[in-house]
Design goal:
1163 residues, mainly beta, Thrombin, subunit H, Immunoglobulin-like, 8-stranded antiparallel β-sheet, 81 strands, globular
């Protein structure tokens, strides 16, 4: 009882003190932010004063803990005002925090505890209103066995700081921590306590919000302003740029974002020098404000990039990312600055941790105009992005558009893909060779405009102001080699390179073929490799001496070693031969052996007259490159064309290249020669006209038409899914359209790839069947694969690109490619190759093919995270974390091969979706995704089923919170929903495939809704959207009683996992899932196949139907099990309950007769 009374008194006292404090702090905050003053303390209580006014008792009451901590409680501050005062401005560092001077040291503040010879010092900082914190120590020295930790809620937020962080300048600045409270904890042997030097003089409180996504902490950090940015993790297909992005994977690893003085941010890049000795140089912009006095406060963050590719142009792309800040370097030394070229070079005062995988970028100081430009940057200091301009740059003065050969800057006239914005300052720009040529100085480019950017020239900074402190030369070429360009180099594992070598065979005896093993960097210990040989055209024994696991070592500190293989000479006339040499590592040396194999080439020196063997005929298409290698016996050494069409060429290896411009029959005469003589052969080229059918790689037999204000046209592009061209919409003006259509006979399935680059939400690439809209795309999308069901009969399929009455966006085009018909194409994939899995759930998925997978072979591969793709096209494993994997899916079937881009997306398990299910219904087992602002939650206050429902929560003005899932049709979706919002301004919306189909507003009460879903995968989205002003009622939307019927519901309840494809046969009874559903069968169990009966010389077949299934039942007749037709069958009964059919011709009129039933979606 007495204990309770004492606690009550203490609590009241604290409350009174807080009231007074709030008043005092309000006055002081308006006046200034002066330093905190610390005074002497009594034994039980330390007093911390802010400009003489007592802020709080520094002794924290113990609560179920064995220790107490001293606390510095800082005043609240006006983050909104600071955001207004510090907007994003390109050409300026981005301010994200407000610095507050303090004076804290372990000798005068905090609490020490000693136990068993170990000492521990604790101190707590509380900064109400701060969205992140970072600290600056003006004096930092730790003895050998000490460690300083930053903890939040008891958890270690960044790696511990130790004696390895002691620097000659004596400072330490910490990374950003996403918290408003930090616990400092210093641990060391008690006898080293007197050697500690620790002076905390800067607490930096963040006023720009950080994102929390997958545990990430972001600097600064609003989401970037635009949605046109390209994540550096995007694949060639996802980026919209194509293979170009893959040429800059190393340079991406060089980019770093950094904080300065604990309150400003900019971008920059690690950079190599001519020695290649891995000194950690880092280049940025001079205007970012790095000086010799504040360089120690630089904290550079590596690998701050999103975990997955957010589609350029999508809402998600402009939203918060999940890039980590766990890889960093703290502290730097200024080496050079040159204002005219806006250049600053620093040397990081610690080596970069090899585990961070950083790349030291190469550079060019030639000053030659780059043919293209690639920028890698951190817009608003958010996750790393990449931008492309495929036009030549312009040499100008800073912020001038006038060409000037002696200009100090490179001008990006406008970006083709991506852009930059505030926070990107200092980021590098690369030329077509991957060499850095400048750093971002400023400009007006942004998402939605075609304005320019300017980069300070690397070449101008090379000589700079003529002194070592104002030029790059002294630091990046310290030995004066005069190098004009230097390639980049990787940190971390040493790259092992074994290069091809060759030797002339000789007529007798032996010769040595010497191989060199090279390391990209010297290692601290002796490294031993094992080399082995493998036959190719050269055979061990007769041509060379075989080797198996022979050891060769590179001593510590060395970069190479050699070994030799003995080659046997002979006088026999033969072709050049080769064998392979493969390296393996003995032990666990930190090396990368991906380039650890090479060819040993034996050059023939005994010749007979060469003979041209082929090819005899080459087929090509107008406007498409023709490349063919001639086949020659007897070691040719020279190739010439004695007769050829205009523009045709042949190289020294016998490769003929040509771009035909006119259709026709052409002849080329090829002369092949060596020392023994020559031969002339004829190669015939049959060139056909280029048509839209060829542009979309049609399987043949289809008639394409195009029209509108500007018809579709053929576009040659390396971005094509098959071949090297695609169909592109014509150039249309506002209010016009361009269309492409084809007549298709059903029942069948039509598969195609499409993409668009347009003004999102206004200009669309749409698909319709017989005038009924099926799908549409808008904005910036990558290639997407779609399959639609073609009903029985003749139908018109049309793709149309249409514009609204104003403005444009992107390339203002739509594209179609790689069109297939299931009845004519093999292999034919029935599902889009984008598979969504649930984290923590065993995977049960198989890629469905139209003709089944019995005679199909998939290229097996490991997809990471325990997931495997086997030869049957089955995905197996249990994903344990969310991730996105992009890979190439290769399938061989019926002698035909298909390779297409594929995506595997592991999504978090969400309880929100389960709340939307009916209390009396099944658990549909769907994967769910939430996006936008606010969130969707499970709640029990407002429900339709009396138990729980999903509801939007925390959606602010002009924001949207979306809840999405994916299901497979044909079928129906039904649900109950309700809006409680401002009438006609805030809406609960239902979307199918990102297209709005229904909405509610105001106080709608619970309503029921049902919608038919045609064949294929569908994205279902429920979104609550608010306008820019005020809120009414509960300001939310609800979802409940979600259920599915027809094939969609049947397959979801069949315990098949993700196996929903209509052609799959998981129980092996010879019937696909759609047929089993149609005939009342089961997905897991032996169902008897419907068998025809013989009645009066005719085959007859009757089955029971599922009423209202949305399927078309039919039958086909054949005399050989190959050619099937419908003209020889008669349907006797086809209603909601039964299907009854017979063939028209009796068996006595044919030696064999077969009858089969077909089932097909109506939509």
């Amino acid at each position: 009882m007495m204990t309770m009374e004492r606690r009550s008194v203490r609590w009241v006292g604290a409350a009174l003190l807080l009231v007074v404090t709030a008043f005092i702090l309000f006055l002081q905050e308006r006046k200034s932010l002066a330093s905190v003053v610390y005074e002497s303390a009594t034994k039980d209580k330390k007093q911390i004063r802010y400009q003489g006014a007592r802020l709080n008792a520094a002794q924290k009451t113990e609560s179920n803990r064995s220790r107490s901590e001293s606390i510095l409680r800082l005043p609240n501050f006006d983050s909104d005002r600071l955001l207004r005062e510090n907007p994003l401005r390109k050409g300026h560092p981005l301010r994200f925090a407000k610095r507050l001077p303090v004076n804290i040291n372990p000798g005068e503040h905090g609490e020490w505890k000693v136990r068993d010879g170990k000492a521990q010092w604790s101190f707590r900082i509380e900064a109400p209103g701060a969205v992140n914190l970072n600290l600056g120590f003006s004096r930092f020295f730790l003895p050998e066995n000490a460690r300083l930790e930053l903890r939040v809620g008891g958890q270690l937020m960044v790696r511990p700081f130790t004696a390895r962080d002691n620097e000659s300048h004596g400072e330490l600045w910490t990374p950003v921590v996403a918290a408003s409270e930090i616990d400092l904890r210093l641990e060391l042997p008690n006898d080293e306590r007197g050697r500690v030097e620790l002076e905390l003089t800067s607490v930096n409180r963040g006023f720009r919000a950080l994102s929390f996504a997958a545990g990430a902490r972001k600097i600064g950090n609003e989401a970037p302003e635009g949605d046109c940015h390209i994540d550096v993790v995007c694949s060639a297909a996802e980026s919209g740029v194509g293979p170009a992005i893959d040429q800059y994977r190393d340079q991406i690893r060089a980019a770093g974002a950094y904080t300065l003085n604990g309150e400003d941010t900019c971008s920059g890049s690690a950079v190599n020098n001519a020695r290649g000795d891995r000194i950690p140089y880092f280049i940025t912009a001079d205007h970012c404000g790095v000086t010799s006095s504040n360089a120690p406060s630089m904290v550079v963050y590596w690998n701050h990039e999103n975990s997955s590719c957010r589609t350029p142009g999508s809402v998600q792309n402009g939203g918060d990312g999940n890039g980590p800040l766990s890889d960093f370097n703290s502290g730097a030394i200024l080496r050079a600055s040159y204002t005219a070229a806006d250049m600053t070079l620093v040397e990081l005062d610690d080596p970069i941790d090899p585990e961070h995988g950083v790349y030291l970028a190469g550079w060019s100081r030639t000053g030659e105009i780059p043919e293209m430009a690639v920028g890698i940057h951190f817009p608003a200091t958010s996750e790393k992005r990449i931008s492309f301009d495929f036009d030549a740059l312009r040499s100008t003065r800073d912020y001038s558009s006038v060409s000037s050969p002696d200009g100090t800057h490179w001008m990006i006239i406008d970006w083709d893909h991506g852009t930059t914005e505030g926070g990107s300052s200092g980021s590098p720009i690369y030329d077509q060779n991957g060499h850095m040529v400048g750093q971002l100085s400023g400009g007006d480019a942004a998402c939605g405009n075609d304005d320019a950017d300017w980069y300070g020239k690397f070449s101008e900074g090379w000589e700079g102001g003529g002194s070592s402190g104002s030029r790059l030369r002294d630091w990046l070429d310290p030995d004066g080699t005069g190098a004009l360009t230097v390639d980049g180099i990787s940190l971390g594992e040493a790259e092992v390179v074994l290069s091809d070598v060759e030797v002339v065979e000789g007529d007798s005896g032996t010769r040595n073929l010497q191989f060199t093993i090279s390391l990209s960097q010297a290692l601290e210990e002796r490294t031993t490799f094992l080399y082995s040989t493998e036959d190719d055209t050269a055979l061990a024994g007769s041509d060379y001496a075989a080797a198996s696991d022979v050891a060769v070592s590179i001593p510590a500190g060395r970069l190479s070693a050699t070994f030799s293989i003995s080659i046997n000479g002979d006088a026999e006339a033969e072709e050049n031969e080769r064998f392979r040499v493969v390296l393996s590592s003995q032990g666990d040396a930190p090396v990368n052996l991906s380039s650890g194999q090479a060819w040993g080439i034996i050059r023939n020196d005994d010749f007979i007259v060469p003979v041209l063997e082929g090819p005899l005929v080459v087929r090509g298409t107008v406007g498409e490159d023709v490349n063919v290698a001639v086949v020659v016996r007897n070691t040719p050494t020279g190739f010439t064309l004695t007769q050829a069409p205009s523009g045709m060429q042949i190289d020294g290896q016998g490769l003929i290249s040509w771009l035909p411009s006119v259709a026709g029959d052409y002849v080329a005469r090829v002369r092949v020669a060596n020392e023994a003589g020559s031969d002339v052969g004829v190669v015939r080229f049959l060139i056909t006209p280029n048509t839209l059918a060829q542009a979309v790689d049609s399987p043949g037999g289809l008639l394409f038409r195009s029209g509108g204000s500007a018809p579709f046209l053929i576009e040659a592009s390396g971005d094509s899914l098959a071949g090297n061209n695609r169909a592109q919409s014509g150039g249309v003006e506002d209010g016009e359209e361009s269309w492409l259509e084809v007549a298709v006979d059903g029942p069948d399935y039509l598969g195609f790839w499409w993409k668009v680059s347009s003004e999102e939400g206004y200009d669309f690439l749409s698909l319709s069947v017989d005038g009924e809209l099926r799908r549409s795309l808008s904005g910036e999308t990558d290639w997407e694969y779609r399959v639609i069901a073609i009903p029985p009969g003749s139908h018109t399929v049309r793709w149309s690109y249409s514009k609204d009455a104003s403005s444009l966006g992107g390339a203002d085009r739509g594209w179609i490619d790689y069109l297939q018909l299931a009845s004519r194409s093999m292999p034919f994939l029935m599902d889009p190759p984008h598979v969504r899995l649930r984290s923590g759930r065993p995977v049960n998925y198989q890629y469905p093919l139209y003709s089944g997978s019995g005679n199909a072979t998939f290229s097996p591969m490991r997809l990471g995270g325990g997931l495997l793709l086997n030869e049957r096209g089955e995905l197996t494993g249990t994903p344990v974390s969310t991730r996105v994997v992009n890979f190439d899916l290769a399938i061989v079937q019926g002698g035909q091969e298909m390779t297409i881009p594929a995506t595997l997306e592991v999504m978090p398990d969400s309880p929100v979706g389960a709340a939307a299910y009916s209390a009396d219904g099944p658990d549909w087992g769907l994967a769910w995704e939430t996006s936008g602002s606010g969130e969707w939650i499970s709640q029990e206050d407002q429900t339709a089923d009396g138990q729980s429902a999903a509801a939007a929560s925390g959606v602010g003005d002009s924001e949207r919170a979306a809840l999405s899932t994916w299901v497979f049709g044909p079928g129906e979706v039904s649900f109950s929903w309700r809006a409680s919002s401002e009438q006609d301004y805030d809406f609960l919306i239902f979307e199918v495939n990102e297209r709005e189909v229904a909405s509610l507003s105001g106080n709608s009460r619970w309503q029921e809704y049902t919608r038919e879903l045609p064949y294929g995968w569908h994205k279902l989205t429920w979104a609550y959207e608010k306008d820019e002003t005020e809120s009414r009622r509960r300001d939310t939307g609800y979802l409940d009683n979600l259920s599915f019927s027809k094939y969609t519901g049947w397959v979801l309840q069949s315990e098949l996992g993700q196996r929903t494809g209509v052609t799959l046969d998981p129980d092996g009874d010879g019937q696909g899932l759609l047929r089993e559903y149609a005939t009342g069968g089961t997905a897991w169990g032996l169902d008897l196949m419907p068998v025809p009966s013989l009645e009066g010389g005719s085959l007859r077949l009757q089955i029971d139907k599922r009423p209202g299934s949305g399927l078309h039942f039919d039958a086909e007749v054949s005399g050989n099990l190959k050619d099937w037709n419908r003209s020889e069958r008669r349907i006797l009964r086809d209603d909601e309950e039964a299907f009854y059919v017979r063939d028209r011709v009796g068996l006595r009129e044919s030696s064999s007769r077969f009858l089969r039933m077909t089932v097909h979606p109506l939509k």
